[in-house]
């Protein structure tokens, strides 16, 4: 995925820049095949990046690939994550004072992490079948995104701040937002923060 100085030497998704300003770009991304896993951080000791190992095992980035062929699949960039709040499957009951509220349903965060597979896989059927049932391989249609790029460590707080600003710019300029933002990170953890490339992407119609 790159070096300590941020050089990106792996395949990246194909897109066309439709318009560009000092603040953001509008891009159209080509259809792609992706491998993804959805989880809650609590499943990985609180780590929001816990799904990385699951996907890395599928492609064989850290050893023998865990897919049916088995076949090593080249790593690409970026690693894409999307977070959303989901209702817990059972209500959480709390004991309150007499006459007070007695229960409620809490929310927790679900994270979907996605690897874009190399372009040589033209369909989901052409990609090796995962052995881990948590990994889903699917085809993603081409679509438009508003994109803002930034450096440094892409914390959840930083990503949300960038996304909020990007959404304001898009709505100001007459674009219709069509979904929640995703975070795209192009570099491995050992890349020095000043040389990292990150993007916040919001789908638009």
TrEMBL record:
InterPro entries: Reg_factor_effector_dom_sf, SOUL_heme-bd. SUPFAM superfamilies: Probable bacterial effector-binding domain. Pfam families: SOUL. Coiled coil: none annotated. Belongs to the HEBP family. This is SOUL heme-binding family protein. The lineage of its organism: Eukaryota, Viridiplantae, Streptophyta, Embryophyta, Tracheophyta.
